[in-house]
Amino acid sequence: MSATSSVSLNLPSLAWTSLSDWQAIAVTGADSKSYLQGQVTCDVVQLDAEHSTLGAHCDAKGKMWSLFRLFHHNQGYALWQHKSGIETALQEIKKYSVFSKVDLELSSQISIGVLGEQADSFIDAITDGQGDVRSVASGSAIKIDSQRWLLLIDEGELDNLKPQLQNAEEISADAWDYVDVLNGIPRVIQSQQNTHIPQTLNLQALEGISFEKGCYTGQETVARAKYRGTNKKVMRLLQGSASDKAAFTFERQVGENWRGAGEAIAQYRNQQGEALALIVLNKDIEFDTQFRLVGDTTNTWSLVELPYDIEQ
Fold it and tell me: Which residues form the signal peptide (predicted)?
């Protein structure tokens, strides 16, 4: 593999956006740590208050109900995830909570993304401490990567932050999707709940699975995929062009024919029509395989490299 993405985004040095498609499940109570430890793929016990981790919650067969970023938040934890399937995700992860001293509920706080090369400096100015997770106003600031922070705060706090944001450009949430897709960060949307195991979306390569912790729901399948090589699918990055932002569904070329290749896990399209998509494919697919959007016989898509090793 040698191809890298040529789809670019001119990101301001400091920008912010409302991430209205994202929400958190708030977890509180004396047993919150132990309860989550028995439910999710990541190691909650080892997670300190200054860091976040990706993780997933699965059914007994290892299929994911949700994929989230987990961090300490307001005397408990937050599981921050795509909003489309969050009500089902909440129902599933709280299923056994009646046996523990733990409360799980949808957070009413809003999600604000801060982006750009000055994002770190902005967060330093509004918070104390040096961690990747910090207290701010009514909530938390969470570092996502070198140029992105998430603010999970009460809605009223945004007005209080507006003076500090006066030098930041308000931009579309598409920019957040662009960085997620380019960096190969998966999500589980409503239509794909209970469909994939964590390794299919490369969660092991993103340190979202602990193979050292004790039992959790779906662990047997997740462990078997690692130690017996039973997982035959992985998430790949595609690049091409699209006429609109409708959900991307792909076909792949097989000889002179085209066969269904599935729906995008996440996608991005810029104003010029250049586009990126994350999609689940067979592990052994040839890197020079050509793809196209269903209904578009003119433009072809190709595989490009992800910024991490999916064979981990």
Answer: none
Residues 6 or more apart whose Cβ sits within 8 Å of residue 228: none
Question: pTM (2 decimals)?
Answer: 0.96
- What stretch(es) of the chain map to CATH 3.30.70.1400? 15-183
Q: Which of 13, 133, 118 is nearest to 76 (CA)?
A: 133
Contacts of 200 (CB under 8 A, 6+ apart): 231, 233, 234, 235, 280
Interior angle at CA 264, CA 68 and CA 62, nearest 5:
45
The answer to whether the CB of 40 falls within 8 A of the CB of 53 is no
- Count helices and strands in the chain by DSSP H and E runs: 6, 18
CA atoms within 13 A on the CB side of 283: 13
Residues in the chain: 312
Residue pair 105/113 in contact (Cβ under 8 Å)? The answer is no
Whether the CB-CB separation of 90 and 25 falls below 8 Å is answered with yes
Two tokens at 201?
């979306």
CATH of 15-183, one of 1.10.150.20, 3.20.20.140, 3.40.50.2300, 3.30.70.1400: 3.30.70.1400
Question: Under CATH, which number does the domain 232-311 receive?
Answer: 2.40.30.160
- Quote the CA–CA distance of 97 and 216 in Å, as a whole number: 14
pLDDT digits (tens, 9 = 90+) for 182-239: 999 999 999 999 999 999 999 999 999 999 999 999 999 999 999 998 899 999 999 9
Please check whether residue 124 is in contact with residue 16, taking contact to mean a CB–CB distance below 8 angstroms. no
* Cβ count within 10 A of residue 168: 21
